[in-house]
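Reply to thread "Modeling small-molecule complexes from scratch"

Following up on the discussion above, here's a worked example others can learn from. I took a protein sequence and the SMILES for adenosine-5'-triphosphate and predicted the complex. Inputs first:
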Amino acid sequence: MNADDALVLLRISNLNKNFGGLQVTNNVSLDMRAGVITTLVGPNGAGKTTLFNLITGHLTPSSGDILWQGESIVGKSHWQIARCGIARSFQDLRLFNHMTVEENILTVMEPASWIWQPGGRAGRRAREERAMDILARTHLLDKAKTRAIDLAYAERKFLSLARIMATDAKMWLLDEPASGLDRGSYELFLDLLRTEVRHGVTVCIIEHNLDIVIGISDRIAFLDQGRLLADGDPNTVLNDPHLAAIYFGEQAA
Amino acid sequence: MLAYLLNLATLICINAVLAITLNFIMGYAGIFSMAHAVFFGVGAYTAAYFALNVSASLFLAIPVAMVVAAALSLVLALPALRVRGEYFVAASLGLQVLGVTIFAEWKSFTGGLGGVIGIPPADLFGHAVSDPVAFLMLAAGCLVLVILITNALLRSSFGRNLKAIRDSESAAHAFGKNVAVIKTLSVVISSALAAVAGALYAFYLGFINVESFMLDTSVLLMAMVIIGGTGTLMGPVVGTVLLMLLPSLFSYMWFLPQTEIGAIQQIAYGTAMVLLMIFRPGGLVGSGKNGVVK
Amino acid sequence: ADVTIGALFPLSGPNATYGDIFGSGANLAAEHINADKLIDGTLKIQYEDSQALPQQGVIGMNKLVNVSKVPYVLSAFTGVSKAISTTASRSKTVAINGGGVGPDLADLGPYFWNIIPLANFEVKAVLPYLIKERNLKRFVLVYVDDPLGEGIRKELTESLPQAGGELIEALSVPATAQQFSGIAARVRAANPDVIYIASYGSQQAQIVKQFRDNGIKQQFVSYTAFSIPEMSALPEAKGSLYTTQNVDWNSTDPVTKRFVDDFKKKHDKMPTAYIANYYNAVRLFGLLAHELQKKGKPITGENLLAQRIETKTFDLVGGKVTFADNGTVVSPMQVNEIDGAGGKVVSVVAE
Amino acid sequence: MTTTVLRTEGLVVGYGGRPVLDHFSFDLRANEVLCLIGHNGAGKSTLLKCLFGLVPRQGGQVYLDEKPLNHIEPRRLTAAGLSLVPEGRGVFPGLTVAETMKMGLWAAGVPKDLREERLDWVMSVLPALHAFYQQRAGTLSGGQQQIASIGRALLSRPRCLLMDEPSIGLAPKLFQDLLQPIRQLQRDTGMSILLVEQNVKEALKISDRVVVMKSGAIIREALPEELADNAKLMELY
Amino acid sequence: MLLLQLLINGVQVGALYALIAVGFSLIFGSTKVFHFAHGSTFTIAAYAFYYLYSVAQVHWLLAVLAATLAAVLFGVLLDRLVYAPIQRHEGSFFTVFVASLGVGIIVQNLVGMIFGRGFVSVSTPLSRSIELFPGLYVSPLSGIAILCAVVFFGALQLFLMRTHVGMGLRALSENPELIRVYGLSPRRLSTIVFALGSLLAVPAAILSAASSGLNPAVAHHVMLISLAATIVGGVGSLRGAACAGLLLGMSENLALMYLGPQWSEAVTFIVLFLFIVLRPSGFFGRAIST
Ligand SMILES: Nc1ncnc2c1ncn2[C@@H]1O[C@H](COP(=O)(O)OP(=O)(O)OP(=O)(O)O)[C@@H](O)[C@H]1O
Ligand SMILES: Nc1ncnc2c1ncn2[C@@H]1O[C@H](COP(=O)(O)OP(=O)(O)OP(=O)(O)O)[C@@H](O)[C@H]1O
Ligand SMILES: CC(C)C[C@H](N)C(=O)O
Ligand SMILES: [Mg+2]
Ligand SMILES: [Mg+2]
């Protein structure tokens, strides 16, 4: 991939986080480059979700820095960070359960927290159109008026992705977005993701399913006990015997 | 008889405004306030004070009442930003009790238990609205206005923001919603509109005292909303009409002993609340299943 | 046709006793009026429950005025009376109070009348007795946090220094409070000579009981509100002093005699000042309505007021009563002591 | 003839609206690992929940040891030696893992003198538990919670274990490491296991029999070897 | 001396509050039922005792037993007949709350109709204070109240520690559905909790009847106090609720040093409000904000 610094969207440098005595993130430095799908892998409790939480401001780092397009975002509240262009999904989805699918999408497209949205009537129409388009692409169009809570499992997963697509975020952080999906569904899911990346978003994804990891990664970062053990080309990382011993097990590619 | 019906209709309008504004924060923002009567009271006292000392003009008294209530509602927004669910209920209960104590003790402004007496009739374009029919029109007009305003807000992006927060605060955050602003705004709007009801009430009765703004009122309002259907548009109105009519029915049952009517009304209330919650937990207008909330 | 007047009494709640007492006087008067055919048609009293609370009072008053359209309403309790006074004057309905004693009841407009002397009389009657004759100078006031209590506090604060006493502390209690051990501690700490209790109903009984339970041994004093059976029956209240109007129950004046005799016959006990007041309130209506009917005028609040000003002096229980222009009456007072038996009069104070 | 541990006949289950399982019949035999696979929404979890009494059935019959169950009550089934690893997070966020285990032992009615030993055994099957044994479950990572949940279900040494997608959130190695001891245990004790999995490749390795579901019905029953090559599987999905 | 006297009064009142609050906290903490009718349990126990002891003149021990029975029965039946059906169709927290409020209103008015809306009190020689030191009065009831609080709270703690029920209750509060997966019955646990919680209201009810009297509306105050103490102490922490009850009783009485009694409820709630805004997790609770 490109080593050019100008393309680094998000730079994590020497990041640390402890809970009480437990060091969950240990001196992690990682660059995320534009247009690249980085996969975060590692054993359970390695600190992957924690890393997401640190980036999005749900947790504050004990030390270290996070730069977004060259500017530090440490200490900003999570809604501010979201507005910088970093969107995330949650391991437990956290959809807006009692709103319809369409409302779920519309609401994340509306930037202002005050009573009026910029753009007036035309802006609203544009947003509605885009929402329909996104729903069509995620195969949720016929469920537009269904409440999120009434969706089937796979549909909920797709809605979670659609909701992120609806933001203008440049960078997506996806926490096990495809877990529990059957094969047909996750293929669809990955296709969608690839298309988006081609159109310019940058993705960081946490995943345990090796088929998916292999299917989508441009680059793999391997975390263990809060430490970044490896970071690079999928083949190299997947074939590392040491990592296989602690994580991939016998089926490493 | 006519006078009686007019009176009932006017009170229904006033209470419906309160129920609608409560539903606005309860059903859509997930802020379950047990202190709504306080803002009702603030509106009423402010309007009364203003009418007695400055002018009884509706176009002045109501805005002033709204502004004062809106400003004070920031106190309620404070815990709303910190905690959710039952904790907020407790905090708002605290505010309710505090409000009642202040209403009862700040005698120079509220007259304490004795109340404010001699409030002049409301003044609309130079005419005193004292005729019951005219006042009913006025109250109904305000009700319609409040319904229109809240509806417009709820259909707008603001309404979606509220619901998003109700469903998952952390996700709302993660999608760039300034939860603090949204919550505060909803509380402010709801309280300001509740103050309209307060002002109407003060002008209507010509007398107000702390008894109208106690916990019972907040509880009753909450019951109106939940029985009608939380988070529905017409639910609060239906709930209000039901809970206001129920007691009047009993006053027509001549065989009930005069001194026990009050108690029997209350028991009927209570029973209605229990049975409805068992058999129609989503409220009369709700979906049958429980409408909202974790 | 029937003539209906209204009555706003506490029929339920902690002050329901007063409603019973007031009603017994009013009903007796109505019986007498109807028996005498003093007015054309039968006189009826429509009762509404005020629970002694202003808000409830206003609701009841609106019903009486707007739905039943009565010209004349019997009111009680300072808070309720003040609250309904606006409605009374707006709708030109006479409200007449025979129980509330808050001094500001005197200034509630022409349609609000008082047929009971107000607290200034009660206080003025008892202070000289306590200070001069009993040498009790240092007062603590325990008063209910409502217009009545407020009124008595004002009255005491003004008159005590003039009378040579001293108000060392005024402690208010919420109208619904029933727990007084903390206040008792404050009272003990103040160590007064005498404790003035300005409350009513079951609350005043609790204050007395709990104060004694908590080691307060000083003299208790109060006003007419103590004249209810609960208080005379309360062992802890023994020795307490309270003021009332001075009515000569043995008077030979026919109105008084008939009232006392019939009351005793009916209830098997002596009437009290409250009972006489509401008897008088209804009787006053009868006299005024009689005059109006004689003139062929309709019985409206406006006409009743005009007639009262015209007639000025009335034959009522206790003798001739004259209304001042602001609609109040004056009366001689007496100081009573609860002695565990029927009670006794310890001092009479003429006007 | 092999005996069945659990058997359903014409089972109907739904959540209002069209039933999810409509006249569903299947059996779980003694001493076997049965792998249940199928699309999202096929009704696998629903079946498990119904078998364990968490969702009421609308019709049909369930047999335990060939005896019909009238009231399917989780408490009774637990006492009868069943155990369920539920879909999603099967732990209480406020309890520490240690407490969760203690409660699990109590709830499963494990006699006092056996509890210590049982715990040691579970810890040996799931050594990862040691690392966060004293932590509150709410602060655990997704996978750690899943491990705790599986551990809890094993405490009673059930004779019939129902597992709903245990692999979700687990690192691949961990899942592999987990399956072998469970298989071992199953062989040792003659336990029956009903395993619902999307991670078919791993699951098939320890299964004796596979049932493929689609839209609430069984569309295929097979031996693992028959489905072992990917092409066959792709056909079904 | 005044300070000391108020302090002693505060401890007595606080002990009663602690008992009431622990009962509510136990129920609320483990079933998440906002049991507003806990106040009604109190009313029922108190009036049952009043009626039997003062009116029907039965032996006090019998009256106490009957009051206990009434309270526990009321709590358990309420759970079975009202809360359980609502929870069955996943009624939200507030659905249960409204039903509970309804029950509270019914009980208050029924009691009012049966026993009168006025004020009643149980007179016993125990409420007459003894002068411990010159100027310091303590009634025997205070001693009994404090003793009751200590005994009951200790017994409860022991019960919850020694048996697994305690853990089950915590689990119940978080996820009753999962409890079933574990093979326990949430309904049984819930019944135990309601029985225990209602039981805890009994001593306070009887002692209040004797020391400060009753009216049908006492439930309101009881409820407010329980709620405040539960939150101040931290939801789920019985120790917290007990300490908070004590604290509220004391602050209410100490406030009398400077303020009139009409402020006592306000003082309680200012404490509550500050806790919520500044330390929402209470004394011992865990952080719960957002
Ligand atoms: N609030 C907390 N207090 C204490 N420890 C915590 C807390 N939150 C997380 N941890 C610990 O931090 C570690 C990292 O957790 P994290 O959720 O980041 O793991 P993960 O890599 O996402 O794992 P998984 O793949 O299982 O989801 C875990 O060991 C977890 O127990
Ligand atoms: N609580 C519920 N209320 C309504 N419908 C439900 C509920 N739970 C599941 N369903 C519906 O029942 C169907 C079957 O769901 P189930 O969870 O059993 O599928 P599954 O086979 O386990 O799928 P997955 O692989 O996604 O876990 C789905 O269509 C789902 O939408
Ligand atoms: C009837 C009385 C007890 C009324 C009381 N004196 C008052 O003024 O309110
Ligand atoms: Mg994770
Ligand atoms: Mg499933």
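What I'd highlight from this example: The CA atoms of residues 103 and 137 of chain A lie 16 Å apart. The pocket of adenosine-5'-triphosphate (ligand 2) is lined by residues A 152-154, 180; D 15, 20, 38, 40-46 (CB under 6 Å). Questions welcome below.
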